[in-house]
Write a structure and sequence with these properties.
It holds the Pfam family FAA_hydrolase. This is Fumarylacetoacetase-like C-terminal domain-containing protein. The protein is an alpha+beta fold. It is 16% helix and 34% strand. The chain contains six helices and 18 strands. A six-stranded mixed β-sheet has the order 4-3-15-8-9-12. The protein has a five-stranded mixed β-sheet with strand order 6-18-17-13-14, with no helix packed on it. Strands 10-7-16 form a three-stranded antiparallel β-sheet. Strand 13 and strand 14 form a beta hairpin. The chain is globular, with a radius of gyration of 17 Å. The chain starts with 11 loop residues before the first strand and ends with a strand.
């Protein structure tokens, strides 16, 4: 039996220190997981718990280290916002995973950006519609190479920043997450059976804002290095 169209390519992430690759299955994202960011978005982190949404796996854009990579500005938006995030890549799956065991399911970590057509997201909020048009643009999930847990452990603290043309716009610390990575995995596994190859974008600190064509973003997480993207 043959496919009637060519099989779509599967997104794979390079692994630091290895020639092997990590195939991606599904991409989950956590919303409002840093208190200051929740407040700047008009939410109360003391009353509203973080929540999940999804990006298409083929919305990822793999960004190598050591070079500036062109990042396409998407159509139908005038407010294209950056959100720098720690990404957890799962090497094991399951359902109803206990929080105490959750980190054993993580293969590694990467730097990611949850790029957002904010005007479309805001319109969807006003009309009580899904966020897909705001969150799922082509290439809206830039992501750097994957660092295995075996090499770096589980980052629980450290600076997470984003600058535009050398001017710092976002600055936070991984320790400021409302839900830890372990808590996110445990909760997510009560909604879905998670699988090897799943990614979790774990939330962004405050300072999100618009980027314009011609500007260069630098996203960095302590212990994971940095990635550079020029908006074109």
């Amino acid at each position: 039996m043959l496919s009637v169209i060519p099989n779509p390519p599967r997104i794979v992430l390079p692994i630091v220190g290895s020639e092997d690759t990590f195939p991606v299955r599904r991409v989950y994202c956590v919303g409002r997981n840093y208190g200051a960011h929740a407040r700047e978005m008009g939410a109360d982190p003391d009353r509203e718990a973080p929540f999940f949404f999804l990006k298409p796996a083929d919305a990822l854009q793999v960004i190598p280290y050591g070079m500036v990579t062109d990042h396409p500005y998407p159509p139908r938006t005038e407010k294209y916002h950056f959100e720098v995030e720690l990404v957890a890549a799962l090497g094991q799956g399951g359902r109803d995973i206990p929080e105490a065991d959750a980190l054993s399911h993580v293969y590694g970590y990467a730097i990611g950006l949850d790029m957002t057509r904010r005007d479309l997201q805001d319109e969807a909020k006003r009309m009580s519609r899904p966020w897909d048009m705001g969150k799922a643009a082509d290439a809206s999930g830039p992501i750097g190479p994957l660092h295995p847990v075996s090499a770096i452990g589980h980052p629980a603290k450290g600076a997470i920043t984003l600058s535009v043309d050398g001017q710092q716009r976002q600055s936070g610390d991984l320790s400021e997450m409302i839900q830890s990575v372990a808590e996110q995995i445990a909760l997510l596994s009560t909604y879905f059976e998670i699988h090897p190859g799943d990614l979790i974008f774990t939330g962004t600190p405050s300072g999100v804002g618009a980027v314009s064509r011609g500007e260069t973003m630098t996203a960095a997480i302590e212990g994971l290095g940095k990635i550079d993207l020029k908006v074109v």
